[in-house]
Predict the 3D structure of the following.
Amino acid sequence: MMKAKLKDPTVAKKKGFGHVRNTLKKLLKEPIEEVTPFFYDSAFDYGGVDGEMPLMFIGVAPSLWKKYVKANKTSKTLVAGRCIFQDGILSLEIKLGKGGKNPVLKLVNKHLLKPFAKAQFVESVEGDLVAVDEVEDKDQANDAEFDSPTVQLLLDEAQDFLAQAESSRDILSGILTGVGTQLGNLSDTIVSDALIKETGQALMAIASLALDDFLISFEAWIKGIDPSLTKANKDLDDVKKKAEALLTELKQQDKDIDKFAVDAEKLQKVQNPTDSPVPPVETSASNAMKNGFANTQNKTSDLALKAVPMFNSIDKSHSELG
């Protein structure tokens, strides 16, 4: 449910508390009738200006979030378990953690869920819902939902990561070997409306990839794979090696795309001078021609002014002779 927006803790830190809250708000516009995994940490460290604020994740947790939950299961701010959402009430059944206390839940409600939802603890999310004020500390280390990531989970996640990585690589390659080659040397490029349009489309395609965010998640996922699992499973080892090669390739493309984007942005500012509200910039040649013409006009005017007295004197002489 939320894994597309919050693949791992690194993304949550970068996107910030507001992003997490908005993601939950969108999710909870509809009821959650099927029993669904969740966890929250009332003091997740976002860093920066947000600092420690609540975070909640609803849905099957990706591997890096599973590791986060396991590493913090003794924290007094964290719980994990199962939930349902009906009529604006988010009912939480706690399976793991020590954060199932009323003051902790108040923080989650106040800062994270109000006014679009209200969370409550219940004995069970199956059958009749019986609300409880607090939940005793629970440490089910073997709880399947929040145990260490399995090989199968990592292989499943690898399919998504590799598919997105390969798609991004192919799109970037097409841009760099296509319109990117025309922008390699702007001084030798004939600028046309078609080229401006093509670079604009390329910039939109690049933005849609959200490459920086993906690279952060992709690298964190690779580093999060337990070496003991790759040693024991050849398929996972092969997948990790392929992922590492793709990550290296994408990082290099990211550098090349940055340069392309700078040139493309410059090109987007180009327009037909006759369509511009600002008068076209005059070249030195046109200035020389205009200045030459003006100088000629000035010299002609000077000569004409000098000739006026002479013609006047001639006219006067003719009058006297007559």
In short: The mean pLDDT is 82. The radius of gyration is 35 Å. The longest strand covers residues 32-45.
